[in-house]
Amino acid sequence: MTDAVERIVNLALHLAHAAKPVGHESIRRDVFGYPKDQDEAAYLRMFERDKDELRAAGFVIEANEAGLYSLDSAATFVSDVGLSATEIAAVRAAGTAALSDPSFPFAPELRLALAKLASRFEPLEVPAASRQADESPSDQAENAAALELATRASKRVEFVYTNSIGRTAAHTVEPYGLFLRDGRWYMVGRDIAHDEPRVYTVARMADLMVSGARPKSPDFSRPAGFDVSAFIRLPFQYGDQEFSAALRFDQSAAWRAKGLASGLGVLRSEGDETVWSVPARDDAALLRWVVENGPGISVDAPTELADRLVSTMRKAATLHG
Amino acid sequence: MAKTPASERARRLLAVIARLESGSEIPLVDLAAELDASPTELASDLETLSLCGVAPFTPDEMIDVFVVDGMVEVYSPLPALDRPVRLSMTEARALAAALQGAGFSADDSLVQRLEAATAREFDAAQAERIVRAASGQHAKGVYGSLAAAAGAHRVVTIDYESAGGAGTSREIEPHVLFAERGAWYVAAHCRLAGAERTFRVDRIRSAQENGESFTVDAADAAPRTATPSGDLPTARVRFDAAGDFSARDWPGARLVSEHPAESGDGDIAGPKAVLGPLEIEIPYAGTDWIARRVVARGGAVEVLSPPDVRAAVVAVAESYSG
Question: What is the reported pLDDT for A270?
Fold first, then answer.
């Protein structure tokens, strides 16, 4: 019996080679691998599965009104990407690093992506590595990959969750999105029991199950305009009482403001300096952030926080003096 | 070991088939590593590929690929599929996530141009609204310049703003780029310091090759961590009752004092937070790094030793308090 791999590759070659649309009868005749003694219905099921495999691999197969198949070459094949040498090196470094990272959830697909692009890139091996998660990275990757699939397919998930104070409970959630921050993957979704969007730490989940009911039908609709970045916070944005803070990046640090702001708050230039207006909820954490990311960053507002930064620094200097 | 499903094996072959140009020779082990397959399994799949072709399956309509002495060799042009297939939606999302992790978001021109290689319905901005594997951003071009220089073993001049506040221009020989908990670093031989140094990429303002090359050995390009503990100096640090010690914040930290909630010396595993007066040994790669982290915790943390770290703490603190 012919290997299914051989049949699928032969089908891809046949469609790519065909000068005009082809019917499934001629495919059965001309593509080596379809059993000649197979009944029609079984052949058609096998053909449908093979087409699905090719579509999953990136082939755009079209059927015309007469039921003839052809490959949309422009939609199937890569045109010139036009990256510079340093951009190609950046892609290689990012890819190599992600593939080395046990917490990266999409390694098999990334590997195929890089393999495809390799024919368009000059050969260059870039030493790079990554370890974004420090807690059970492989488990986080496995759960994040399953959650991403559930998110794309709009399927509910069930899991047992242990929160930060050690309370364990079962949850059923409609997953909307995922984000990675400070070494942890998080899932945002509507908790069915609470009927509100919540953020869950993926590393705190156990016994994750994706709903298997009606696998090709979505269980829910993601809210229009959903953007997972709205749920990503900086360390000083957790707490009860929100206040407005303004941080100043002096001339030496202004170039770092955009990267450090991570798309949050509002940046505005004042001469050579930049002022970042950003909501905050934890004054101690905000001061810690200012110092850890310095030098060249200071607090403009609230003024009492600016004063506290100075007094706290005096205390530290005295302690070590 | 479980046999790889046929669909996965077919996808691997279809991903690399366009690279099988007539006359090409590719080491089997390299291609296998790239595809996360064993050389034996890939050799078997390439043998299957050599049986593939288009009707009428005459020799010139077959894929003329063979594995000879560990090399994948191709003797004639492919009958079809000689151009790479665009990335599928899932492949494109995976690549976008990897690039996000390196600081390239959907609005970056690099990501936008890569959309020419992806399924037409792929929308990087939309994908980013669902999954964000983001790290902080870097100064434009810095990451790519460092990556290219590390790959080609070329010397780079960087403008670096250290945590200590000194802006310096340095020539570095970049060995490896690595990411850890959201931050990217480059491990390099620094010609200014005359020693191996680790630089945070988001503190590098510009990076420009200077035309010189350097040589590396295998150890130089080995994966790194930002906080290796083996051969680094350590500081003894005291956290008071409000010190808010968390092992996650101080990688490689080692408890050296007794505490009612702990039992004896030893590595502090996991993210557990503990309270109370503690003496901790903390490995550090840069004096400025540890000084700034200590100062950031106000007077709740005190460096007991060494003296140069204590002095660095005073200098950082006085830069704020005058």
Answer: 97
Which residue, A223, A247, A251, is CA-closest to A234?
A247
Query: What pLDDT score does B189 carry?
Result: 95
Residue (of B301, B299, B295, B298) closest to B313 by Cα position: B295
Whole-complex ipTM: 0.92
User: For chain B, what is the domain count?
Assistant: 4
What b/e readout covers A109-135, taking b as 16+ CB neighbours within 10 angstroms?
bbbbbbbbbbbbbeeeebbbbbbbbbb
What is the length of chain A?
Answer: 321
The verdict on A143 and A171 lying in the same domain is yes
B130 and A152 Cβ atoms separated by less than 8 Å: yes
Model confidence at B44, in pLDDT bands (50, 70, 90)? very high
Q: Which residues of chain A have pLDDT under 70?
A: 1-2
Residues of A in contact with B125 (CB under 8 A): none
As a residue count, chain B comes to 322
Closest chain B C-alpha to A65 CA, distance in angstroms: 23
Percent of chain A with pLDDT over 90: 85
Smallest CA–CA distance from B203 into chain A, residue: A256
- Say if the Cβ atoms of B18 and A104 lie within 8 Å: no
Instruction: Determine the structural domain holding residue A89 and report its residue range.
Output: 85-120
